[in-house]
# Entry
Amino acid sequence: MIVDIHTHLVDYDTELGQQVKDDLTRCGIPRNVWKFTQKDYLKGTEKADRAVVFGIKGRATGWHCQNERIAEFVESRKQKYVFFASVDPLDQQVLDELKYCHRELGCKGIKLGPVYQGKHPHDPVYYKIYEYCENNQLPIMIHMATTFSGGVPLEYARPVHMDQVSCDFPDLKIVLAHLGHPWIEETLAIIRKQKNVFADLSALYYRPWQFYNAMILAVEYGCGGKILFGSDFPATTTESSINGLRSVNKVVEGTALPKVPMKMIEEIIHRDSLSLLGIKL
Ligand SMILES: [Zn+2]
# Structure
């Protein structure tokens, strides 16, 4: 079984603010990448047996996803898709929204991104969210990595802050997105030492030197078992991510540098991430 733990469903016209569009252009990312239809999304994730799907709510940087829209998409496709809700700590009613998404919309986890949301991950509002999630066995997927969205301190994206959170909420399942790049060593140290912290490797394979080094470090630290497969659609598709993972050693072909064992790569591709996160379907 292949679980794609990290996919986005957004409506370009109504859910992405001007700032997101300007930031994409400024960083040389074609805006069209984020301009996709539901059909494109279904095709981009077709190689997954299961896919976790969410948007981003972060008014600080122009992200305005509608949880209802994603819940509705998942409703008729529950045999494959798993809904995570995104809540914005700048929203006065954030805890009500969290409860609504959990109790009414039936989300199975929460997507957060302090570097999109303009709050430090140790802010009291986040702590209330962590507390609710821990009490209700809701895993969190949190973007602790750099991004193209500007205007919020990169400090808020440092994976090490979630080490403290895991000490304070030891039963909370946490996924650090994108292996915390560029702080990959920091991320591997955390997932190795904290039982309930994992990381996904979405949207990394297309930086082949960084990705190769990340996988070698995971081998050396012996923490490949805590790495989850994901694509970050629309940044990449499930299929291209699988192919990218299997090509990890290409960048060192013909050299004496160590090779990433294919056994670890296949284990990551076929990992039952939903069970690891305690998600019951
Ligand atoms: Zn993402």
